[in-house]
UniProtKB/TrEMBL annotation:
<dbReference type="GO" id="GO:0061542">
    <property type="term" value="F:3-demethylubiquinol 3-O-methyltransferase activity"/>
</dbReference>
<dbReference type="InterPro" id="IPR029063">
    <property type="entry name" value="SAM-dependent_MTases_sf"/>
</dbReference>
<dbReference type="GO" id="GO:0032259">
    <property type="term" value="P:methylation"/>
</dbReference>
<keyword id="KW-0489">Methyltransferase</keyword>
<protein>
    <submittedName>
        <fullName>Class I SAM-dependent methyltransferase</fullName>
        <ecNumber>2.1.1.222</ecNumber>
        <ecNumber>2.1.1.64</ecNumber>
    </submittedName>
</protein>
<dbReference type="Pfam" id="PF13489">
    <property type="entry name" value="Methyltransf_23"/>
</dbReference>
<dbReference type="GO" id="GO:0102208">
    <property type="term" value="F:2-polyprenyl-6-hydroxyphenol methylase activity"/>
</dbReference>
<keyword id="KW-0808">Transferase</keyword>
Length: 299
């Protein structure tokens, strides 16, 4: 009998099992990226569960998340891993010049450098010692600290607490989000950027390598982010989705070759050959992209 509880809504019903994954397949996928992950997998399969209250999906067992060595290997094998992102630029629209900003998971300082260029005071938290060292050399204020510890010593200090492509790596999501809110002033902004796990990214691409453990611990979408209002004292003010055209080439190639529907694969292939510009316009008009930015207010 399933007695797995949601790590987001701690007092809710048992989570629902929705999918299983073969560990050896995942290990081989990462090996193709020159990253060794066999040490994380102690069972032949891993599971994906869904929180029945929020819709948040999470992998189990929780111990299969990446460590400092994993992220150092990843950053060295993917040169653009900590680069500037769409959500960085969008988040700047919600930050005022006088704000004190805390960024959780600063990487090599892409967003902190953007804040610095705008004369906005900021502090970063980064657990990857390799990335934190680079930030320090570039004159950025970065602490090797968990958000839970930062919130205890600097409770209610920040105007903005933000994280980009971080929350999907966290297993103890309730503690992480609660601490992020605790570090905020009343009416302060909590800004979260995560992959948008809508159907096109996940349903037709079950073994999308970097969407699996040990890289990702959970899957977020519009419903799960909106549901945070029911768990914490925050109010959703804005939600933005990255335009599909940013990653359209990946999207259309994958759909044409891997969509579960043979009929849809045929129609997309034909339409893409006859009128690729029109197909792109239509799809980008109605399908959201692969990342989502949510802006909450502490109440």
């Amino acid at each position: 009998m399933n007695n797995i509880k949601s790590p987001l809504f701690l007092n809710g019903k048992n989570a629902e099992l929705i999918e299983t994954f073969d560990s050896e397949t995942i290990i081989s996928k990462y090996k193709a990226l020159n990253i060794e992950v066999a040490r994380f997998f102690k069972t032949p399969n891993i599971s994906l569960y869904k929180c029945q209250k929020t819709g948040y999906r999470f992998y189990y067992p929780f111990e299969i998340v990446g460590d400092a060595r994993f992220y150092e290997d990843l950053s060295k094998n993917k040169s653009n891993y900590y680069s500037e992102r769409w959500e960085h630029k969008r988040a700047l629209n919600y930050i005022e010049k006088h704000d004190l900003v805390l960024e959780i998971g600063s990487g090599f300082g892409a967003f902190l450098n953007m804040l610095k260029a705008s004369n906005i005071q900021s502090v970063g938290l980064e657990l990857n010692p390799y990335a934190a060292e680079v930030c320090a050399k570039n004159g950025l204020t970065v602490k090797n600290e968990l958000i839970e510890n930062e919130a205890k010593t600097n409770k209610g200090v920040y105007n903005v607490v933000c994280s980009f492509q971080v929350l999907e790596h966290i297993t103890n999501v309730h503690s992480f989000i609660k601490a992020s809110i605790d570090a905020l002033k009343i009416n302060g902004k909590l800004i979260i950027g995560v992959p948008n796990n809508n159907p096109y990214l996940f349903v037709n691409d079950k073994y999308h390598t970097l969407n699996l453990p040990p890289h990702h611990a959970g899957l977020w979408d519009k419903k799960a982010l909106k549901a945070l209002e029911t768990v914490f004292s925050i109010q959703l003010e804005r939600m933005e989705f990255e335009p599909l055209n940013v990653n359209y080439s990946y999207f259309i190639h994958f759909q044409i070759t891997n969509n579960k529907s043979k009929t849809l694969r045929f129609l997309l292939r034909a339409f893409n050959k006859m009128s690729p510009g029109l197909l792109k316009f239509i799809l980008c008009k109605f399908i959201k992209g692969r990342n989502v930015l949510a802006v909450f207010k502490k109440i």
